Amino acid sequence: LVSKSFKPETTTVQLGDMLVGGPEVMVAAGPCAVESRENFLETAALLHRAGAGALRGGAFKPRTSPYSFRGLGEEGLKIMAEAREVTGLPIVTEVLNASDVELVARYADVLQIGTRNMQNFALLEAVGETDRPVLLKRGMMASIKELLLSAEYIVARGNWQVMLCERGIRTFETETRNTLDLSAVPLLKQYTHLPVVVDPSHAAGKRELVPALALAAVAAGADGILVEVHPEPEKAFSDGRQSLRPEQFAAMMADLRRVAGAV
Ligand code: PEP
Ligand code: MN
């Protein structure tokens, strides 16, 4: 179902007043995790001013260590919903378990499936049963074909609103957190009608690399960018090292507009 031979025309995903997969590049920005109401609302307002098209933030965080900050849960979802009220921007947030899908779908505009869950088939089927757009991240050790087969699980359940996300894969290189596989963008475009989003933040792991990777992704044909921004990255509860400062985000948006024509 996800292959271009089955459906040659590009699938567009309606997100607020934007069509992902259309001529505009969708930029979803925000902190790794929702940390507090004040912090998130303030961040949302500045991202809105800088031209973001959607807000990202984690309420349920998959963490390598069980002792790290794992998110505010439903409280975080409520804060994001409030930010949507204020800014009008749609909300992208991760759902970790099939049993949480109903709860997260009550608040979120886009259900994000994280890299660690790309092959959580029960979760894929559960989001496939909803009418919410899904952002499916590539597993950090998954091939492009495996990503497409995971998308197939969602679409087979009737939900065609799926965006694929390249977020870096594990390689021998240690200078970056993961290696951004830019080839995935034109390859996915060749194989599938689904829109392609790139997350340069989790790929790079270092904020100074993020704008260049975002620009390269859009130049390569990405339909959207998912990027972490924090008002005070040094104080972030998670992923501060890769989070852009607000002024870096604004500069990146200006550069993206030049590359994409219209953002
Ligand atoms: C995230 O977007 O915050 C996240 C956890 O991403 P990934 O699943 O790609 O690590
Ligand atoms: Mn993160």
Architecture overview:
- The structure is a single chain.
- The protein has 263 residues and is α/β, with parallel strands linked by helices.
- Strand 1 and strand 2 (18-20) form a beta hairpin.
- The strands form two sheets. The protein has an eight-stranded parallel β-barrel with strand order 3-4-5-6-7-8-9-10, surrounded by seven helices. Strands 1-2 form a two-stranded antiparallel ribbon.
- The protein is globular.
- It is built from nine helices and ten strands.
- The chain has helices at 37-50, 74-87, 101-107, 121-128, 144-156, 184-191, 200-204, 210-219, 246-260; strands at residues 13-15, 18-20, 26-30, 54-56, 91-94, 110-113, 134-137, 162-166, 196-198, 224-228.
- The protein starts with 12 loop residues before the first strand and ends with a helix.
- The protein has a single domain (13-258), classed as TIM Barrel, CATH 3.20.20.
- 36% of the residues lie in helices and 15% in strands.
- The structure holds phosphoenolpyruvate and manganese (II) ion (MN).
- Manganese (II) ion binds at residues 32, 202, 228, 238-239.
